[in-house]
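Progress note, project year one: complex with dTDP-4-keto-6-deoxyglucose.
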Amino acid sequence: METENSLFHWKKLEAKGDDNGSLVALESNLNIDFDIKRIYYIYGTKSKFIRGKHAHKNLRQLLICVSGSCKVLLDNGNEKEVIELSKPNEGIYINDLVWREMFDFSSDNVLLVIANNFYDEDDYIRDYEDFINLVKNANN
Ligand code: T46
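Model obtained:
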């Protein structure tokens, strides 16, 4: 499944293995379409907690739920969609200027994120009104 829209892009990952177990390898500029600069993972999030609530000015990321599930709200200022991540062999690419919120975390959730840039707090847009204004300016 690899569909493209302006909010996100599904990425199917090839799993090697059989009934005894599976392995997924992630490689810069091979099955990951950018230079991997950072990998982080999120776990132990309480089911009622909403993470994210921000967009980025310049960051491409691949999100994969390697364990459990969570939902992701994606919003580009014009359209919104909620998707569920629940398979360790598929993920979503998210580009910059997409507001994201992650919620409904299962208790066993581990959300792995592969990023094309280092952590930079200045890259975050944490105020929704600022985000909408940036989207409007980018479209003019
Ligand atoms: C995103 C979603 C999917 C670091 O020190 N280094 C890092 O690489 C990151 C990502 C975070 N941090 C610190 C900053 C905060 O003190 O870890 C703390 C939690 O970060 P934050 O509240 O931004 O986490 P989330 O889950 O709301 O958002 C994260 C990413 O920050 C964000 O880029 O797109 O996951």
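Residues 38, 40, 42, 51-52, 61, 63, 100, 113, 119 surround dTDP-4-keto-6-deoxyglucose (CB under 6 Å).
The chain is about 10% helix and 40% strand.
No further modelling is planned for this target in the current period.
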